[in-house]
Design a protein that fits this description.
The protein is mainly alpha-helical and 267 residues long. It has one domain. The chain is built from seven helices and two strands. The longest helix is centred in the last third of the chain and has 47 residues.
Length: 267
């Protein structure tokens, strides 16, 4: 994390320093100057992935007809994705078919989003473009595959040349369809998740750095402003937890919507 103040040329003059882009590119902490070097963000991603695997392994290794507390929580989470997203949008057959990828998206994004509010981590695993870009690319390939598999002869044709449109309008319609469906859609899928996590992190860092500055550096009466920034920091932490859940849900449900559109009989 950044320090709440900085010295000015060694003169001892303090000043508030807000968050900057360097927050998202921390220094290397392991295996420096090798192909396997890791910084704090990469460690967060590795640890989060291991935690997800461990939680699901512990929750499902001893499945019982009458589930215990751990199994109940796991089953509730899996049913939320299965019933509330996959089967609701895709139906039972296609919902079960695409359930593994939708479940992976939801829990991976949720866990990596939540690390932004975990003390010691303080940085979401999805706040740098690598993970959102990878997941959006997988979603992109999946819905195109679904469309080509279901409608091999007409998926791309109908996507680029919508039926019922006079042929001379295709000069305008086709470039718009290429841009909106095959370029804008995956780009917005990436940016929606990425930018929410970036903004959330910057706000939290700003409030807590300001709190530290007011309590430690500010003179006299100005220290009282630290109470306000601390309260805002706490409120935005709760809001960030809500955003973490919502973004996992939105990314997953949009993936399901795109697959549904690819499978639709209109193609």
């Amino acid at each position: 994390m950044l320090l709440p103040f900085a010295t000015d040329g060694g003169s001892g003059a303090g000043g508030f320093v807000g968050p900057n882009i360097g927050e998202f590119f921390p220094p290397v902490v392991l295996f420096a100057d090798t192909p396997f070097e890791l910084n704090r963000l990469m460690l967060i991603r590795v640890i989060t992935t291991l935690v997800i695997v461990l939680v699901f392994w512990l929750g499902t290794r001893n499945l019982k007809i009458v589930p215990g507390r751990g199994q109940s929580i796991i089953e509730w989470g899996l049913d939320f994705v299965r019933v509330g997203i996959a089967e609701d949008l895709l139906g039972k057959k296609d919902g079960r078919r695409f359930l593994p990828i939708l479940t992976t998206f939801f829990f991976m994004i949720l866990a990596m989003n939540l690390t932004g509010a975990v003390p010691g981590f303080n940085l979401a695993g999805t706040s740098v473009i690598g993970v959102p870009l990878l997941l959006a690319a997988i979603a992109y390939v999946t819905w195109i595959y679904a469309g080509l598999r279901k409608h091999p002869g007409k998926f791309l044709r109908n996507a680029l040349f919508p039926p019922g449109v006079p042929w001379y309008f295709y000069i305008i319609v086709t470039p718009i369809e290429i841009l909106s469906t095959f370029i804008v859609r995956p780009v917005t899928h990436v940016l929606r998740l990425l930018m929410n996590m970036i903004v959330g992190h910057i706000l939290l860092v700003l409030f807590f750095l300001a709190t530290s500055f007011f309590f430690i550096e500010a003179p006299g009466f100005f220290k009282l402003f630290g109470v306000g920034t601390l309260a805002l920091g706490f409120a935005f932490t709760l809001f960030e937890l809500l955003v973490a859940v919502l973004q996992a849900y939105i990314f997953t449900i949009l993936t399901a919507v795109y697959i549904q559109l690819a499978l639709a009989d209109e193609h």
